[in-house]
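Progress against Task 2.4 (sequence-to-structure conversion) is shown through the following example record, which the project officer requested during the mid-term review.
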Amino acid sequence: MNTRAGFVALIGEPNAGKSTLLNRMVGAKVSIVTHKVQTTRTRIRGVAIEGDAQIVFVDTPGLFQPRRRLDRAMVAAAWSGAADADVVVLMIEAHRGVSEGVERILEGLGNIGEGRKVALAINKIDRVESQVLLGLTKQMNDRYSFVETFMISAEKGFGVEALRAWLGGQLPEGPWLYPEDQIADLPMRMIAAEMTREKLTLRLHQELPYQLTVETENWEERPDGTARIDQVVYVSRDGHKGIVLGNKGETIKSVSKASRTELEEFLGRRVHLFLQVKVREKWQEEAERYSEMGLDFKDGNV
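Structure tokens generated for the chain above:
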């Protein structure tokens, strides 16, 4: 049997549903999913098997207008992921149509190399009438030569199998790149940090969506089969520390419990999770923090 393997980059605006699609394609939660924008900072690779093909998904940060160093590094990572992939899937939201952000992405697609296969996935199709979908499909295909267009609902699963089957057939022939049972190539320490950051983002809503990061400082495998995980939540101001801790520490306790529960489910065993909150005023300007997130510090330069 001839096997296939290759990389598929999911690109689009923040909140277009890329992480939700990745998790559904892979069949496990490997990417942070929240209603907040710009939650994906690292290029998480999820691995899916489709017949004789191994599809390695690169879930890129959402493409948006960058303002800060971290923004610029995230956008650079997204375009880099697209340029390195065998197939690119541009995801847009059906109910938002061709926004300014989508316009910018369409312009950028011309810079990632000729001959690259780029497919269009119109997501959240349950939110609009069929006439709107047909009009949007025509409008997008008039603007760019997509090799294929898919109508999907990443959240509900509609159209996802057809997209995955098509992707499997587009990849080059060759040996599989990862062991069959491996679903993500991120170190578990980073996946654990992402899970905690997701819980913080959900809990804090508008207060601190962007001024914090989480790092797994220590991971200890215990003789009884459990794991002790120590994590640090870095915030940029003293005032933010109080918000993360909450009244009598109730916010951080709630976040810790939710993150521990998800980690135990993911790992299939008991976890002892310990969180600390530390102030690092300029963490967004530290090269070490960027490498922890899988981003290139230099890409954040103006």
